[in-house]
Every structure is written in C-alpha cells, then in structure tokens.
Amino acid sequence: MTWYEAVFVLLAGMGAGTINAVVGSGTLLTFPALLAVGIPPVLANVSNTVGLAPGTAAGAIGYRRELEGQRGRMLRLIPASLAGGIVGGVLLLTLPDSAFHAVVPVLILLGCLLVAFQPWLSKWISAPSHLHRGAWWVIPAVFATGVYGGYFGAAQGVLLMAILGLGLDSNLQRMNGLKNVLATVVNTASAILFILVHDIDWLAAGLIAVGSTIGGFLGARYGRKLPPIALRALIVCIGILAIVTMVF
C-alpha cells in the first residue's frame, strides 16, 4: 500500500466512523476503499470489520449521556447482538458471498421505510407504556440484525434504528445511543472471531481503526445536535445510498 493509498483508507475510516456514530452504513465507505487499493473482497470485509470496531465503540462512548436510564434495555438487547454477531461472522466464513446479496437491498429498503414513516406507524403499533420495556419482537429482530451485521454490516445502523424506533418508547437520539452500543457489540464479536480464525490485513485494519475512532467521536459530538427530523432524513438518505451502491 502506497502512502497516498494509506491516506485514502485513513480518510475513509474517518468518514465511516462519523457516519456510524450518527446513522450507520460507514462500511459503504471503507469496504469499497479497501477494494480500490487491491485487497481481495473477503479479506477486505474481515479487515474492515476489525478496523471499524474501535470506531463504533467511540461513537457509543460519545453518546453516553443518551444512554443514561437505559441499563435494563442494554442488558436485554446486548446478548441478542452478541449472538447475532457471532452467527453472522460464522456465516461469512462458511457461505458464498451471494448468499445474502439478494436480500440485503430489500432489508435496507424496509429499514428506510420504517424510519421514514415511524411517527405514523407508531400510532398503529401497540407501544409500551413504560420507558424500559419494549415490544416482544425487538429482541429477535436485534438478533437478526446482528447476524446481518456480522456478515457484512452495511446499513446495520439503519435497520437497528428502524427496529428500536418502532419497538421502544423513546426519542430518536436515545435510540441512536443504544444503536451505537449494539453495533459495537456486533462488530466486536465478529472482529474477535475473524482475528482468531482468519487472516487480517493489519495495516488496513489499523488505518481504519484510527480513522474510525476519530470519526466516531466527531459524529457523536455533532450528531446529537441534529433535530429528529434531520436525523431521520439523514438515515433515509444513507439507506438509499446503500441500496444504490449494493445493487449497481
């Protein structure tokens, strides 16, 4: 990797860390960047996951104020994300790349629609009356998103925000903080698995780790200042970009 390719990957990591803290879909920056510098797809995928893990953790730390009072939620949802991340990582190592490719754009589109129409859809859904309780389907949905996140992860945040926004009774910024925690768990679980059983391009992973950590703190600092409608619009735009990128 030349010095300018290294700078390119570092900047992609910063952008991904910022986007992941605010919305998700940072993989859509770093994965193509790794392919562009000549890293094979599977190696790029696992190295990207390892590199983004510190950045998602930085985003979660940056949103720690929004996590206050959500300890019960985290204790219920973290095991689902952990299990999902491990299962997704195993699938990445054992299944062909085409296994999920056909359904991923559909899942992202569904997530965008749910986020966009969440205020209206919530009126038709039996919302929980207590702040710390949620709909029964949230845990299995978080597990399924964790499987997807461990396998590839692009727009994992979009799907999580749709699930949490519809299934839990809270505002969008608090859900964003919780999303960052769950994404951190998924990325860390799959990253540890990849480190143990697969080759890693440590230069690429290191550059993304540094960049995404910086970006994660920047995203957390400025992301919480966005009004709900702006954050919702950003989520939908990133999701549409993910669909276009993955289909075409």
Which class of secondary structure composition applies to the elements?
Answer: mainly alpha
Q: Cα-atom Rg, whole angstroms?
A: 17 Å
Spell out the helices and strands N to C: HHHHHHHHHHHH
The poorly predicted ranges are: 125-132
Give the strand content. Answer: under 5%
Can you count the helices?
Answer: 12
Morphology call: globular
Tally of discrete structural domains:
1
Tell me the number of strands: 0
- Helix content class: over 70%
Quick check: average pLDDT?
Answer: 84
- Taking the alpha carbons of the first and last residues, their distance comes to 27 Å
- Describe the main β-sheet briefly: none
InterPro entries: TM_pro_TauE-like, TSUP
Pfam family, one: TauE
Family: Belongs to the 4-toluene sulfonate uptake permease (TSUP) (TC 2.A.102) family.
Main location: membrane
Would you kindly provide a written description of the structure presented here, covering whatever features stand out?
This protein has about 250 residues and is an all-alpha fold. The protein has one domain. Helix content is about 75%, strand content about 0%. It contains twelve helices and no strands.
